[in-house]
Structures are given as structure tokens and as C-alpha cells.
Amino acid sequence: MPVPNDLLDAVQFDDDGLVATIAQDHDTGDVLMMAYMTAETLKETLETGRMVYWSRSRQAVWRKGETSGNVQRVQAAHLDCDGDVLLFQVEQVGDAACHTGHRSCFYRRVERDGSLVHDGTKVFDPDEVYGA
Amino acid sequence: MPVPNDLLDAVQFDDDGLVATIAQDHDTGDVLMMAYMTAETLKETLETGRMVYWSRSRQAVWRKGETSGNVQRVQAAHLDCDGDVLLFQVEQVGDAACHTGHRSCFYRRVERDGSLVHDGTKVFDPDEVYGA
């Protein structure tokens, strides 16, 4: 498939060449995670239909699910008004987006007094998937 | 209400003192927008129950809805696994989060060929709300 020029022209990458990218479960609407893409990983995402991020901590291409098998299949994608955030609706294979084994990375609820309460669903044990 | 210390300790603010913050409609699950908060605007958000961002373009506190009336009332809040993204479930007053008058900032759908298609609902005319 050819390079998607309209989108690449419209995306406002930051000084590090990154764009913030939200992954949302296309079925439930749950927000699963937020990470970053480069122009190259965005192109690969659209070409392959699987989410490919840029890991800022590892400074490397991050093909989501490559180790765990929990890939994210693109169902739809949207760009925000000023072009600096992407929102992908995805099918989360394996039912867990988070490296901690939770369904969503947002498994800590903030109470009104600022305390944090665990309220996420744990789908897998990360030690078993990634090794202890 | 006292300062929410647990949360402020857990949030990983970036080098500019900002944390990425997603606002999601608490009722429909639609992702409305993504913007940034400082520690101060996060505190004000929790204390007032209304979303208060930091505008990077204006370098100023941004009390969402102060001009348009379209405030966002906090219903719930979550912090992600590594503490650098907040997700707020909100009630969007006026039914439009975007300054363009759209319900969501993500009103441009990306096609598989990379072209962008308008598919959002326009709720108000920004010229009438903010002045031409």
C-alpha cells in the first residue's frame, strides 16, 4: 500500500519526531493506553493494520504484542483538531494492553482525596509472559 | 479539600512540568480530547471538580469552558501504569469539547490510504461563541 501522504502531512510531530497516540478498545470504548509513534511507525501501523509504537525508554521501534502476543489490530483511526494526537480504535488480542498484565494501563483510580485505588482487571501474570 | 499527595507523588511530570491528560465522555466512552496539566492545574481540577489544563500555546492556565461555557465536570480519574498519563471521565457540558465546535477533537477519520475524512458532529459555530 502506498505511503499515506494526507495523514503524514497533517500530523504535527513534536521536536523529537513523535506524536501522542491513544489506543481505545473499539468494542467497549475503554481507553487501553497512550504511547507515541514516529512517522515511520505510523506508516507501518497503517500498512500492516497492527499498532507499532516508538518506545521512548528503549529508543526503539515497539511492535505492540511482539513478545506477549497481545497485538492490537487497527479498526479505525482519528486525528485531533490540531493534528498532534492520534486516536486508534483497536481490537486488543489477548484482552490485555498493559505490560503489567492489566486489561488497560489505567488501572489506578484516583479518589477525590488524591489517593490511588486499584480497580483494573488483571488478565495475565507478566512474569509468565515476559520471564521473571 | 487538602492537597492530593498520593496522586501528585505518583504522577511523572515531564521536563516542562506537564502530564498528558485524556478526557473521555463518562457516559458514551467517546474520547473527547487530549491536553496537558501541571501539578497546579491538576490540584485545581481535583479541588473544583472541573477540568483545568495548561495551554502550551498560550503558556497559561486553561480553565476549560471559561469562555464557551462548555466546562467538563469530573466524574472519575485514572492514572496509567507508569504515571505519565491521566485519564479523566467527564461530563461534557454543552456537548462540545472542541474549540472548532465539534463534540470531540477527533473528528477527522483516517482512511486506510491515509486520506482524512470528516466524520464528527458539529455542535456549535465557533464564530458565534468566541467571536469572529
TrEMBL record, chains A, B:
The gene is hisI. This is Phosphoribosyl-AMP cyclohydrolase. Mg(2+) binds at residues 80, 82, 84. It is found in: Cytoplasm. The keyword Iron does not apply. Homodimer. It comes from Longimonas halophila. Its EC number is 3.5.4.19. The keyword Disulfide bond does not apply.
